[in-house]
Recover the amino acids of this structure.
């Protein structure tokens, strides 16, 4: 009976709870996170921060000292070719992982939690580290902000005003240094886009251009409107195909794009809504920013690698 109880309640694995990365460890982490949601309410922002080992000159300098026992100058490091950078990184993956951990702690303590408060005053946070296919660490993070609006409680207008304050996807043409970093934000399809046998990019790139940031809701359909929904889905399929075929950085206005697609703005928005299963935020986006990942200008300038930042609509989906 005791053994059956152990099997039935999965209690035989409980001793693994202290072993980082094991299923019971993550079960416990998930319960902790759900407890935070019950205590603190919905998180405000969901962020991801990746590493850019080949772009981080300070990390390449450390690797040069450890691997080649050589003090490289900034100029030498900037002129290293791809193979040379990869050789340094692959020679010491432990230092790369430790450096990422150190950097994320410094970034959190000395920047996000500082008086500068680039995202607003942080009440609490939760993050987990994942490793990408290439062995590089990145983190997913939930951030609770003080006095931030909550979707479903505050009006959509307040939520959109807040989003426009902290999140953007625009190319800062008048700021060459930031533009250089935004080029690290361009989404390029890879095998992970089609994970779980998806035929389309699971990150929904390219994103549809918008004249203004907006929250779109799925269409409520009754029996009579079923055919209309079918038509809208077809229109959306055609729009998606044309957006996919567009070259990165094609410089036209949203109005010109709608003219090229041969749809009105109203039909365009309805076509997007026909494909939604839950409320979704669409940022103000020009057609030449189809594949730019969301970012916060201050965080991107400090982190200097690919990041993603989204306002949380459904906290349990995030968790």
């Amino acid at each position: 009976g005791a053994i059956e109880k152990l099997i039935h309640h999965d209690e035989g694995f409980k001793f693994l709870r202290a072993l980082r990365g094991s299923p019971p460890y993550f079960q416990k982490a998930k319960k902790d996170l759900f407890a935070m949601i019950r205590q603190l309410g919905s998180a405000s922002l969901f962020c991801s921060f990746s590493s850019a080992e080949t772009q981080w000159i300070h990390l390449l300098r450390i690797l040069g000292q450890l691997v080649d026992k050589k003090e490289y100058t900034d100029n030498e490091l900037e002129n290293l070719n791809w193979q040379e950078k990869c050789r340094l990184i692959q020679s010491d993956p432990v230092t790369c992982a430790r450096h990422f951990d150190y950097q994320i702690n410094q970034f959190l303590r000395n920047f996000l939690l500082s008086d500068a408060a680039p995202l607003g005053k942080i009440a609490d946070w939760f993050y987990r580290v994942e490793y990408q296919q290439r062995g590089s660490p990145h983190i997913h993070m939930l951030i609770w902000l003080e006095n931030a609006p909550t979707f479903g409680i505050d009006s959509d207008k307040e939520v959109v005003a807040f989003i426009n304050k902290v999140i953007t996807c625009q190319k800062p043409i008048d700021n060459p240094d930031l533009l250089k970093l935004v080029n690290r934000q361009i989404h390029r399809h890879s095998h992970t886009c089609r994970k779980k046998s998806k035929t389309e990019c699971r990150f929904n790139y390219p994103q549809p251009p918008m004249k203004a940031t907006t929250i779109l809701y799925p269409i409520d359909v009754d029996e009579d409107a079923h055919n209309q929904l079918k038509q809208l889905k077809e229109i959306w399929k055609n729009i998606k195909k044309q957006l996919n075929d567009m070259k990165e950085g094609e410089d036209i206005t949203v109005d010109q794009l709608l003219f090229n697609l041969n749809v009105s703005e109203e039909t365009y928005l309805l076509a997007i809504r026909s494909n939604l299963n839950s409320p979704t935020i669409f940022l103000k986006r020009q057609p030449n920013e189809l594949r730019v990942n969301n970012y916060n200008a201050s965080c991107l300038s400090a982190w200097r690698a690919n990041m993603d930042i989204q306002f949380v609509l459904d906290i349990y989906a995030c968790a």
In short: The first helix runs from residue 2 to 8.
